[in-house]
Amino acid sequence: MRNRFLQHLYIFYSLVFLLNVIHVFWPNPVLYTVIGVAGMVMMVISVPRADRVFKILGGILLAAGSFFFISSGVSAGKIPAFFAGNVGLLFLLSMLPWMNSVVKAGRYNKLLHALLQGNGNRSLGPLYVRSEATMVSLAAFLNLSSATISQDLLINQLKHVKTKVRNSFVAMTTLRGYSLALLWSPLEILLATSIFITGANYLVVLPWMLLIALLGITIDAGIGKWLFSNYELEEQTSVLKRLSDHKKKLGGFLLALVLFLVVVVFLVNVIQFDFLFAVTIAIFPFAFLWAVLLKRKRSFLTIGWPTWKKQTNHLSNFIVLLLALSFLTESLNVSPYLEYLQNPIIALEGHPLLIMLFIQAAFLVMTLLGVHPLATMGIFGGISELLMGALPPVTLTILLASTAIATVPSAPYGLIVTLTSISLRMNPYKIVMKNLPHSLVLGFLGVLVAWFTLQIY
């Protein structure tokens, strides 16, 4: 009976998400409280099913939130509403599998295979550049699957290379390329959250995020090419198809990405939807129409429906993290202790570059300690009014998103690092050490670009 209930959690979660959609169009305080009560029920269901790291982190966030709430003197009747703030983020996470499903239905994962094939060059240096460029180009839609597919292929391609060199190559090029793609992807939860916090316009932020990605890949590809230029492939793998055979498919993929961005921008700037909500509600209709145009509707639904149910049923980690974080943030905002967290920012008032470096350091240190960057983002969200008093919304968005995403390849308990660790049979902390310089450089690039925008906005 219990297993049957857990297999149908997606129904309950979908009802909660539907209430959240209704609240967007009808912002009723009673409805918001109902969503919060449902969120608390989701927490109770999810805690036993969450991974140990998320249980600990969620417990710490709830304990801290309880302390701040008690100190606030606010009525206990307000507690349910404090759990409703991040339901929209959970809704976005629930919808992401649909985009991944149309990519699989359209067989774009095979495109990734083809682009990563050797091009006749026996040195690992050019392969590093090719692999990272492919990841940056395609990971915006393929998401995690781009990393797992490319890792499997590269491990096979480099099977005759020394294990230590192969592992370093794969861990560096795939994770770094993945993080560079996340910088501008509208489907990336950290970017969406930073825009959610600041209310900045995605269309204004996008060129700057693309600039950071371009600078990042230029620097890292150059370094990677130099580091691996002395290593050679002992034998070439056969090319699945000539690259020219895939130009049309690649063009269609990139066109779809551009069209999705256009749809999101239209919903935000013309319909006046919140960015997070616009991305969330655009995913399924866009993915479905894309599948219809590809004449892959049946494959899309066959792949998408069970994948969506499974992913939605297993949102436990993010439910624990995001709803506990919502409670902490709301409690902090009504607590007299808020000023103690604001003091470091106040002390740096008039020195925006130092504030930026402080935020970069906070993300990196907290990530290395095992705290998910979303949690750190939420803490900064709790003092967003103070931060926006020191930095314009566009600048703050660029700063929060870039410095948070920069830590992804160096998060010892992050999903992408964990998957890579399993794939390579490599200690996750060794992967972290391989990518820590990249996280530092990418975060610093984010700070520099954010500082530059400060002169404009």
From TrEMBL:
Keyword Membrane: yes
Protein's name in the database: Citrate transporter-like domain-containing protein
Keywords: Membrane, Transmembrane, Transmembrane helix
Signal peptide: none
Protein biosynthesis is among the record's keywords: no
Transmembrane parts of this sequence: 9-26, 32-49, 56-76, 82-103, 181-202, 208-228, 249-269, 275-294, 315-333, 353-375, 396-416, 436-454
Recorded superkingdom: Bacteria
